[in-house]
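Form 7-S
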Amino acid sequence: MKVLVTGAAGFIGSHLTGLLLQQCHEVVALDDLSSGKLQNLAAYQHAPGLRFVQADIRDRASLMPHFAGIDWVMHLAGRSDIVPSIEQPDDYFDVNVTGTLNVLQAAREHGIKRLVYAASSSSYGIPDVYPTPETAPIRPEYPYALTKAMGEELVLHWAKVYQLPAMSLRLFNVYGPRSRTSGAYGAVFGVFLAQRLKGVPLTIVGDGSQTRDFTFVTDVASAFLAAAESGICGEAFNVGSGNHYSVNLLVDLIGGERCYIPKRPGEPDCTFADTARIRAALDWAPQVSFEQGGAIMKQCMEDWNDAPLWTPERIADATRAWFDHLGQ
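Output:
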């Protein structure tokens, strides 16, 4: 197949690009490089089936020609992180909602065979049920989660109304090599690895008993491939590890001193995907255990040498908008 991957130079996108190339697909790797890095694709730069395109999904006119002759679209481009979405909601809407509309319209015009959208488990908000099934209410707590949910609504609506062969994957707490090492305060794995390298205490939110469904990036990439190869359209599936693990366990895995910072409003005490549907429908299951994934992260810890060092004071400053707007 000829596959267009949006956000291909990003964390998940680069791993998915590599998997598609290994499976002998041609890949058009599209990214605006606003957050992704070309070096994430360096391992594949000599692959005969790879072509990189720098383009912005907000610009439909420049986006449209790159869909010509494409069989599959893997739509991963988008804005992430909570605090920037609170501070810049218009930018998040432009990219995550309008950008997704542009991708859908380009895919529709060029008659693509499959489209798979990267949705976010954060759209569940604080669920009532664990493990959380796809039937759980969508209750986003902040603009990032809202715009990802709106993007998914567009994808599923286009599948229903225009018969676009599209589906959505709701990703839970993805981690692994090439996860972001710069920019806004974000994923706990990267924060902890940078702190461990610099020999400062690991900043634990609350008491650390909260659990997360940490899902390794190669398992996520394989879920996208399984979704593209399936004949299923108009549905959403959870992608998770099949378990959930406390932040304290993660700290034990990484090692180092600890310090504690205030619990944040709008954050669930647990994220835990019910993956029964994707296992049954796509014959997909995660392959990398938390212990295996943690060991891999420790092996590439040096990648976080130049990452921002988040101290309690810097975190308090960076998350002020979070408390100001969500703590009411």
